[in-house]
Design brief:
8 strands; eight-stranded parallel sheet; globular; 9 helices; single chain; alpha/beta
Length: about 260
């Protein structure tokens, strides 16, 4: 029992052997995968995989890198596509001031649009944030004050302060293979503070392959390595962490609940 709460099965490095990667994930005990969309052109393909594979789910959203290229993505369009029975999340969305591939104001507008759609659909928002903690928190907090919504900070690499604030808002935190890297001491410290009932695990495949797979394209099977490392780091039984993170996934992404 284990869930990869964030992967990109349609990305180069994984799509070429998608069926084999799915088989390896299942053999590793991965019982569900959330296939994430980052631009509108991906939505149909991401949904097609989720429709074909009973253990794969889908999200719809626009990554902050692509915000400039999607000025027409409004709340109504997100809500309409999110009505598909295999869509269980909104995103990934958020703010990325590290690469600044899209105008920051446009990123913020897109992020707010996604939050509103998440609130109106009841589906969780999947948040990407990099070098943008103050603005990310301000927007999350402002929108939470307007009405509650669910969400997760995916591939968490931010500060302990941001983790604490996100948890106070009721959000979940997802840990990727980065936690296994030798230079990830700060993240490792933060990962031990996340309450057991707010913790998710992910691969962000085909990126960020954990130790001992560094240098290879990531794939959902590798979430087992991250879970094993995380359990040891937190002083927990691995099987219990697997069960708990799986339960957390279905609590947050309740549309996928069996």
């Amino acid at each position: 029992m284990l869930v990869d709460s964030h992967c990109h099965l349609n990305y180069k490095g994984l799509v070429e052997e998608q069926q084999a990667a799915l088989a390896r994930a299942r053999a590793a005990g991965v019982t569900a995968m959330l296939n994430i969309a980052t631009r509108e052109a991906e939505w149909d393909d991401v949904l097609a995989v989720a429709t074909r594979e009973p253990d794969v789910w889908a999200s719809v959203g626009i990554h902050p890198h692509d915000a400039d290229h999607h000025p027409d993505i409004d709340v109504e369009k997100l809500i309409t596509r999110a009505a598909h029975p295999r869509v269980i999340g909104i995103g990934e969305t958020g703010l990325d001031y590290y690469y600044d591939k899209s105008d920051r104001a446009r990123q913020r507008d897109s992020f707010r649009t996604h939050i509103i759609a998440a609130r109106e659909t009841g589906l969780p928002i999947i948040v990407h944030t990099r070098d943008a903690e103050p603005d990310t928190y301000e927007m999350l907090s402002e929108e939470m004050a307007k009405g509650a919504y669910k969400g997760v900070i995916h591939c968490f690499t931010a500060s302990q302060d941001f983790a604490d604030k996100a948890l106070e808002l009721g959000l979940y935190i997802s840990i990727s293979g980065i936690v296994t890297f030798k230079n990830a001491a700060n993240l490792q410290a933060s990962a031990t503070t996340i309450p057991a009932d707010r913790l998710l695990v992910e691969t962000d495949a085909p990126f960020l392959a954990p130790v001992p797979h560094r240098g290879k394209p990531g794939e959902p099977a590798f979430v087992a390595d991250t879970a094993r490392f995380l359990a040891d780091l937190r002083g927990e039984d691995e099987s219990e962490l697997r069960v708990r993170t799986t339960e957390n996934f279905y609590t947050l992404f309740s549309k996928a609940r069996p």
